[in-house]
């Protein structure tokens, strides 16, 4: 589509920043830092009065998407909309009648947009900012909003009753078909985004889709299962949370809460024939002791630990999907380690190596960085096909003095990770990444979620969503420390990492706290303009030294992140908000006078978290995924009716936010 929108000042502004950045890239040492300071001034301008930004909104408790004046959104695709004209859309009006229990429901679900959308990335077609292939994670299902009267069949420990599951095997099949990844073509026409049914790129990956295992764990004895005695293939993907994109145009889907799909570990663990290595690995990343959250193992023994104790080892990886080549199977890249991968944020090091940052979203878990052995080849796409199979995975240690180290997770017969410590080979290091990181002395974090890299400064931002178990000042990994400084961290925080030498392959870094979230006007905590000493209280807040508490938006539970072309950090939330409002989308300055200033851009419908948070190529659209609207409701008593309106069931959906004048979205 011809782009006849008026060109805006921001295009010129962006080019000024690019010139500044390229000038900085040829400076070194102190001069580079001086350049950063100059760049900081420019970035701060985007928050200055008179910028073409937005007028912030306040937190809301409505069942709508709230945006600043001058913005609108399209609902691009909703849970259950069919990707193919041979399959009808899910008729959500029939959910109370049990349409998702009908024979054939799973076959249809596997051809429809999946449930609870999370990560989003758009891969351009025809070099257009208005046309591309979206890859979207479908993280999990909420059975109480899918199957009627399920509340009558929930046990005391909040599990689905086994007898109900065995009466309704189709329900398990539907759940498996509703998660994974959706690949779907999108286009903007007449200023509005929509998806294209029957695109040759459209496909679903579900909990039953075969995908290849590659890297050091491929073929390992530990990963061989009944379904694949050679240990080269996995069946399906689950817990697909945040993600990433590679410079060669593939999508990375991160498998996060995979433990929730496996049951009866307590029983399996006691079995005398159990491989002792499995006991060590599963104890550090444990499946459910008895019935899993969804109870699939009561219908499908693949998920039953007493029958298939190796099966969870085929999950917990980063999955690479090629959106442009639908015939290619997805590939699980085992070199990137096995844990609750929140994200797979990818950038290129100075020497051309590919670097993938990932958080392990569990209380007191770690931040990781993979550095490829080979280098990115910008001329020949195919040369990068298996770049993520060889390299070094590192885990972060944050020192109290603001320095840090990336510790290599490499098997070494003479080192810490050797046979004598339970790591006889690299496959074991990667299968038990958490255990190996424990031995190296990594820093346990307050649930590291998404990670973003600034295209302007190269700084790396890590969202630590919250961790109310963080203890008093005390020796030991669960006490407060410099990088997790609040006792009972309710609201979460964001850490800024600056790699030494401005090189993402560096082994050392400097770090500082960017934001300690919460309510800067709270009577229960102090509004700090510098962080000195510890411990801090849960309601103490810090906004990078920004001094005007009244000019800040309260927020909590940062989850997904992105940094725009101006260097501003976009934050979407998943959890309680300090003043009881809904989740939303916020933006923070990272440099100059606006550093630490947080303003609210969007408010989500009732019960929803906000995910995705990625701009299209020209910065005129912000894609947000609205996940689990009406989360605590049931089919009989839905708590949200978004997006379809009164009397309708809530549906997770992708939205595209644009300016009414079609311009670039600025902070
Ligand atoms: Fe799936 Fe950590 O959010
Ligand atoms: Ca997340
Ligand atoms: Ca989340």
Q: Class by helix and strand content?
A: alpha+beta
Question: Quaternary state, please?
Answer: single chain
Unreliable stretches covering 5 or more consecutive residues: 1-50
Task: Assign a percent range to the helix content.
Answer: 10-25%
Please state the overall shape, judged from the principal axes of the Cα atoms.
globular
Fold-level CATH name: Neuraminidase
CATH-derived architecture = 6 Propeller
Relative strand content: 25-35%
Distance separating the two termini: 27 Å
- What is the CATH superfamily classification? TolB, C-terminal domain
Task: Briefly say what this structure is.
This protein is of the alpha+beta class and 667 residues long. Helices cover 12% and strands 27% of the residues.
Can you describe this structure?
The structure is a single chain. This protein has a single domain, classed as Neuraminidase, CATH 2.120.10.30. The model is unreliable at 1-50 (pLDDT under 50). It is α+β, with helices and mostly antiparallel strands. One calcium ion binds at residues 241-242, 342, 449, 559-560.
Q: What labels describe this entry?
A:
binds calcium ion, six-stranded mixed beta sheet, binds MU-OXO-diiron, disordered N terminus, alpha+beta
Write the layout of secondary structure elements.
Elements: H1 9-25, H2 29-45, E1 71-78, H3 105-109, E2 117-124, E3 131-138, H4 162-167, H5 169-177, E4 180-189, E5 192-195, E6 203-205, E7 210-214, E8 233-235, E9 240-245, E10 251-255, H6 265-269, H7 276-284, E11 318-321, E12 331-333, E13 345-348, E14 353-359, E15 363-365, E16 367-375, E17 391-398, E18 403-408, H8 426-431, H9 433-440, E19 445-446, E20 448-453, E21 460-464, E22 493-499, E23 508-516, E24 527-528, E25 541-543, E26 558-563, E27 569-573, E28 584-588, E29 598-603, E30 609-615, E31 621-627, E32 653-659
Parallel strand pairs: 7-12, 24-25
Antiparallel strand pairs: 1-32, 2-3, 3-4, 4-5, 4-6, 7-8, 9-10, 10-11, 11-12, 13-14, 14-16, 15-19, 16-17, 17-18, 18-23, 20-21, 21-22, 22-23, 23-25, 26-27, 27-28, 28-29, 30-31, 31-32
């Amino acid at each position: 589509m011809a782009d006849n929108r008026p060109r805006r000042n921001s295009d010129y502004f962006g080019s000024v920043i690019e010139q500044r950045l390229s000038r900085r890239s040829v400076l070194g040492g102190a001069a580079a830092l001086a350049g950063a300071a100059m760049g900081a001034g420019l970035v701060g301008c985007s928050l200055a009065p008179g910028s073409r930004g937005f007028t912030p909104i306040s937190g809301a408790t409505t069942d709508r998407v709230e945006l600043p004046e001058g913005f609108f959104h399209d609902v691009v695709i909703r849970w259950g909309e069919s990707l193919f004209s041979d399959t009808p859309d899910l008729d959500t009006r029939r959910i109370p009648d049990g349409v998702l229990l009908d024979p054939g429901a799973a076959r249809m679900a596997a051809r429809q947009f999946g449930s609870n959308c999370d990560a989003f990335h758009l891969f351009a077609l025809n070099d257009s900012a208005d046309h591309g292939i979206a890859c979207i994670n479908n993280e999990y299902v909420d059975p109480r909003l899918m199957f009627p009267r399920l509340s009558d069949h929930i046990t005391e420990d909040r599990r689905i009753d086994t007898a109900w599951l065995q009466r309704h095997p189709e329900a398990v099949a539907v759940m498996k078909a509703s998660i994974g990844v959706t690949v779907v073509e999108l286009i903007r026409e007449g200023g509005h985004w929509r998806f294209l049914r029957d695109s040759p790129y459209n496909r679903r990956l579900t909990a039953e889709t075969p995908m290849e295992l590659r890297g050091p764990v491929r073929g390992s004895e530990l990963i061989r299962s009944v379904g694949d005695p050679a240990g080269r293939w996995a069946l399906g993907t689950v817990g697909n949370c945040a993600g990433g994109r590679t410079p060669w145009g593939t999508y990375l889907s991160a498998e996060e809460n995979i433990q929730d799909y496996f049951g009866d570990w307590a029983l399996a663990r006691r079995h005398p024939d159990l491989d002792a290595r499995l006991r060590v690995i599963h104890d550090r990343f444990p499946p459910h002791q008895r019935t899993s959250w969804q109870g699939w193992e009561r219908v499908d023994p693949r998920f039953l630990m007493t029958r298939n104790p190796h099966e969870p080892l085929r999950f917990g990886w980063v999955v690479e999907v090629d959106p442009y080549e639908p015939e290619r199977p997805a590939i699980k890249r085992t070199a990137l380690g096995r844990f609750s991968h929140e994200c797979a944020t990818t950038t290129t090091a100075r020497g051309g190596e590919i670097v993938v940052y990932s958080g392990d979203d569990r209380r007191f878990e770690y931040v990781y960085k993979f550095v490829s052995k080979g280098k990115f080849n910008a001329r020949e796409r195919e040369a990068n096909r298996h770049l993520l199979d060889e390299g070094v995975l590192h885990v972060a240690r944050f020192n109290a003095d603001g320095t840090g180290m990336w510790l290599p997770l490499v098997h070494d017969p003479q080192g810490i990770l050797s046979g004598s410590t339970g790591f006889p080979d690299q496959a074991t290091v990667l299968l038990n990444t958490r255990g190996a990181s424990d031995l190296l002395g990594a820093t346990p974090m307050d649930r590291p979620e998404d990670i973003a890299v600034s295209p302007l400064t190269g700084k790396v931002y890590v969202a630590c969503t919250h961790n109310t178990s963080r203890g008093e000042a005390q020796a030991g990994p669960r006490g407060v420390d410099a990088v997790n400084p609040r006792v009972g961290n309710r609201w979460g925080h964001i850490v800024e990492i600056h790699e030494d030498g401005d090189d993402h392959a560096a082994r050392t870094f400097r770090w500082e706290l960017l934001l300690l979230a919460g309510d800067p006007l709270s009577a229960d905590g102090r509004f700090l303009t510098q962080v000195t000493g510890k411990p801090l209280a849960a309601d103490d807040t810090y906004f990078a030294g920004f001094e005007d508490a009244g000019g800040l938006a309260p927020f909590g539970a940062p989850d997904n992140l992105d940094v725009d072309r101006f260097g501003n950090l976009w934050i979407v939330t998943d959890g309680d908000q300090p003043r009881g409002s809904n989740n939303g989308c916020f933006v923070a300055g990272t440099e100059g006078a606006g550093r630490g200033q947080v303003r609210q851009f969007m408010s989500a419908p009732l019960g929803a978290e906000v995910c995705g948070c990625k701009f299209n190529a020209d910065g005129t659209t912000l894609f947000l995924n609205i996940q689990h609207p009406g989360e605590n409701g049931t089919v009989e008593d839905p708590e949200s009716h978004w997006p379809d309106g009164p009397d309708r069931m809530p549906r997770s959906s992708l939205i595209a936010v644009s300016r009414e004048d079609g311009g670039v979205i600025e902070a």
